[in-house]
Protein: Phosphoribosylamine--glycine ligase
Amino acid sequence: MNILILGSGGREHTFAYKIAQSNRCEKLFVAPGNAGTASIATNVDLKVTDFGAVKKCVVENNIEMVIVGPEDPLVHGIADYFAETSELQNVMLIGPSKRGALLEGSKQRAKEFMMQHNIPTAAYESFTVESLEAGKAFLENLNPPYVLKADGLAAGKGVLILKDLSEAKQELENMLTHSKFGEASSKVVIEEFLDGIELSVFVLTDGKNYKILPTAKDYKRIGEGDTGLNTGGMGAISPVPFADGVLMKKIEDRIVKPTVRGLSEEKIDYKGFVFIGLIKVDNEPYVIEYNVRMGDPETEVVLPRIKTDLVDLLEATYRQNLGNFNIEIDGRAATTVMLVSGGYPDAYEKGKEISGLENVEGSIVFHAGTKLENDKILTNGGRVLAITSLDDDFRKALKKSYQNIEKLSFDRMQYRRDIGFDL
Ligand code: AMP
Ligand code: GLY
Structure:
């Protein structure tokens, strides 16, 4: 069958890499894609939230399966658009409906869902500009640090963690009254701070059944030792060494099962990935957030460990056959290290030539922000390349990634040398 992947990052290159290996895939398209996807698929230049352009691409190329990488088109209702459009009704779209995507699109909705279905999470209240004073009073009754979350999508920047009460009150006001995060912060969730270690669990669900995919841990801060600004993610490791059988059973029983049951009870169409951000506090798991897609760079370590044919797995998801499906996981560890442009996550330059790609051995290079121009591969984003390696344990895998990184270069290339430092 012909398959289309929507998106342009390392996550989408990784999906393309796995799908290109399946003998069920005839022609593979990535829209808009990058220089990496161009080497194994046909890139289509379109905007992923332009559903009319997506439809044209699907119809013209006889596409039978569409995998949605980022959250934006999902939150804007691409799955509903496919279901309502006669030419697209039989296309296997992997991604939740708009109602399902609200689990990521609204922090308040996610919290209500967790309360409704008894899923462990931090205590919270939400506030709008009308209840600003009540919000400040609520902060006075909490212990620091204070966690403020813009309700809507804010490109990963909408969460503030503040030590000082007066600063927290000021930021609440900035969010509600001065639209600090635009429309996204017209509502703010204030929640209890949870002190623990984070991990992510990935679930594939067809709305009734589920499969738990490999766990991963990402490194979000730009600086070594988890310092400096938040980024999209500077590296990742899978599996998470401390996610042992006991913890995973708690996560499955208390979080994964009630989440899938909740979706089904609320009659939400959900055929896709649930990325559950968790924090372990004294051996007990709590949900920090839901995302309705795979993570980036987590995908770059999770998918390479799935041995099962990805097209078969996704088709079973679409046909609600996951209950009978067996999924085989590679027992080795996977790591990825992100190479980023100097200045990222603040301003950075694009268009720098990348050299040394042909010398990489024993690692997989996933392109994130790259483009092909006059036969040269140029940087085209903050996050540029993800260097993934597999080995018996994560330290050996990391060594391979770092050895290969020595062979790669572009002007003002940066990366963290301490991925996995806390494990
Ligand atoms: P989110 O966008 O919801 O994933 O939040 C971004 C980051 O803020 C998370 O990855 C955590 O590191 C941190 N965080 C969010 N909520 C809490 C909380 N209730 N307690 C402690 N840290 C949190
Ligand atoms: N790496 C975090 C995310 O994809 O949201």
Summary: Residues 122, 147, 149, 159, 191, 193-194, 198, 277, 288-289 surround adenosine monophosphate (ligand 1) (CB under 6 Å). The mean pLDDT is 96. The CA atoms of residues 174 and 180 lie 6 Å apart.
